[in-house]
Each structure stands twice: as C-alpha cells, then as structure tokens.
Design goal:
single chain; 336 residues; mainly beta; Neuraminidase; 2 domains; four-stranded antiparallel β-sheet; 4 helices; globular; Kelch-typ_b-propeller; F-box domain-containing protein; KMD1-4; F-box_dom
Length: 336
C-alpha cells in the first residue's frame, strides 16, 4: 500500500509515516474508538475504507459472529409469528472465536427495548447492517436500516428499505447488501430484489427472479448471490428445491434446479461446503468465516441451545457465558 494519501503522513510525531501507520494498523479494534479521539487525522484514518482494507490485507482483522438473540423469555417455543404469541425481546450478541469472548452490542437507539422481530443482518467492511423486520410492539413490518460501526461503537440510521418485505433473503459482498424475495405487507410472495450501497447510502432495484420466493435464504458464493428455495403465494409452505443466482459480474439472474431438498425450510440452515457447494445444516444458524464455522441449535424442540465452533467436519462444543444462552433467531459474520 503506497502512502501517498495525506491521511497516512506524520501520524505520530518524530516517526516516519510508514512506522506511524504500522503502529496504528496493529491497534486492536477495541481501541479504535479511543484512538479516534486523539486527533482529526487519526479519526479520519480509522474511519476510512482504505484503513480497513489495509488492516485486512496485513491480517489484523478478525471475524466475529453476530447473533440476533433472545435476551428475555428466550425459548424457541415463544418464537411465535403472530401477535400475542409471547415473543421474547431480542438483542445483538457477539462472539469472538479467537478470544472466546461473548459480548452484547448496545441497543439501537430507536429500539431500546428490543430489535425488530425477524430483522436481517449483514456484515460489510467491518460494519454490521440491521434491516427490516417487525415492530416489536405493533408487529407491523418496518423498513428501517441501521449500521453499527465497530470502530466507533456507534449506531447510525441510514436510508430506509424501498419496500416493506419480511422473511427475505440477504447476502453481502464488499460494500453492498443484496436482498430478494420474502413477502409484502399483504403476505404476497415476492420475486423482486434490491441492492444497498453502504458508501452511497442508496438502494437500486435488481431484475426480477424467475419466481416468487417467500421464506427463502440468501448466501454469497464467490461472485454470486444465491437465493435458495422458498415458495409462492399460492403454495404456502411448499418449499421447492430450486434457487435463483444473481451474478455480480453480469447483473443478471440464472435459475438452478435441484440444489435444495424440497419441502425443507432453508431459513438459517443453508451452509457452504469446502467445495463451495450448498449444504444443509441440521441445526439452526451457521456463521462461516476463514474456513471455520460457528453454529447453534438444540437437539430437539424445547431443549437448551448448544453452541459449536470449528471446521466443517469437526465441531467443538463451547461453554456459554451467563446471559448468552438464549434462542438465536439469525446471525452473520463480520470481519472487524
């Protein structure tokens, strides 16, 4: 990385610019908020995309699992999709696989008593994106988008989603989040898709998929965004075995048949094997990164949740700190 940008010069007095940059690059992400208060130059540097990719290129980033987790009344039986079903309050939990450290992210200011139910997560450029879901009080679908900056430990409200969607697929690549399918506020299944640009804070509509896909699951494999299974308005719960695949290069969809077990719900159960092919988890959530995986689930309905980490073929059960054993609704991996 060439240090021609003024942000990368004279970072630390009496040190050559490359050594100053090296010192700041080695700072753990937990220290970034304090370091950004030293001066405007450090603040601009730490918040820049260039600095994130510089740290990533030299191996100073790490992958953290981010989970939408029940923080009160946390049983799977209370995960009802109807008003009055006793849904628990949900918060955001993080698990650092390297240090085996559990933590909880501060609540979104607009939702201090719990996240929107069934909101979706995405991890882009060291930031956590939270979007959509149902208002935890009224159960109305919402279009809100929030971004949590791990470096600053701050939430920001961003441009709302262009339409009310629930149970849609989500995937992310570089500084963009892709969403597709789900259903609208009238329970009609959707075949539409959108892409959100974090840098520009803009939404752009994608071409339509080959069919409606409610309760589908999204996953990014290489240069493609896969929208797996789902069902149409007239076939409630009839999960099919096909997928629509969006190519980042061509900007077009292609349909793939026979990639999923018909009749099986794909929500939070789609994994990617070492050969970059789809696989089905028998447990609830998979969050992958760097050849390792973090998963959680229960042996049977009503059983307590277990948490596991390891390689695809060998998982190790890990201990759960007090207060972090609640039901996990969904999750993603963020490299910070």
């Amino acid at each position: 990385m060439e240090n021609r940008n003024p942000e990368f010069t004279e970072l630390i007095p009496s040190l050559p610019e490359e050594l100053g940059l090296e010192c700041l690059t080695r700072l753990p992400y937990a220290a970034h908020r304090v370091a950004s208060g030293v001066c405007q130059r450090w603040r601009d540097l730490i918040r820049s995309r260039e600095f994130y990719y510089h740290r990533k290129g030299f191996g100073y980033t790490r992958k953290v699992a981010c989970l939408v987790q029940a923080v009160s009344g946390g049983s799977k039986e209370s995960d009802d999709r109807k008003p009055g079903g006793g849904s628990p309050s949900y918060g955001l939990t993080t698990f650092d696989q390297v240090g085996r450290v559990w933590d909880r992210i501060d609540p979104v200011p607009e939702y201090p008593n719990g996240l929107p139910l069934f909101c979706q997560l995405a991890g882009c450029e060291g930031k956590l994106v939270v979007m959509g879901g149902w208002d935890p009080v009224s159960y109305d679908p919402v279009t809100v988008v929030f971004i949590f900056d791990f470096a600053m430990r701050q939430w920001r409200r961003r441009k709302d989603m262009p339409a009310k969607m629930s149970f849609f697929a989500v995937g992310w690549y570089a500084d963009r989040v892709y969403v597709a399918g789900g259903h609208d506020e009238n329970k009609n299944a959707l075949r539409t898709g959108w892409v959100y640009d974090l840098t520009l804070d803009e939404w752009t509509e994608l071409p339509c998929m080959s069919q409606e896909r409610d309760e589908c699951e999204g996953v990014v494999i290489g240069q493609d965004f896969w929208v797996v299974s789902g069902y149409g308005t007239d076939n409630q719960g009839g999960f099919n075995g096909s997928a629509d695949v969006f190519s980042f290069g061509s900007g077009q969809w292609r349909r793939m048949e026979g990639v999923w077990e018909p009749g099986r719900c794909p929500r939070s159960n789609v994994g990617v094997g070492g050969d970059e092919k789809l696989m089905s988890w028998s447990i609830q959530v998979g969050s992958c990164g760097g050849g390792r995986v973090f998963v959680t689930g229960s042996e049977y309905q009503g059983a307590s949740n277990g948490f596991y980490v390891g390689e695809m073929v060998k998982l190790e059960k890990i201990e759960v700190s007090d207060g972090y054993s609640g039901f996990v609704q969904s999750g993603c991996c963020v490299e910070i």
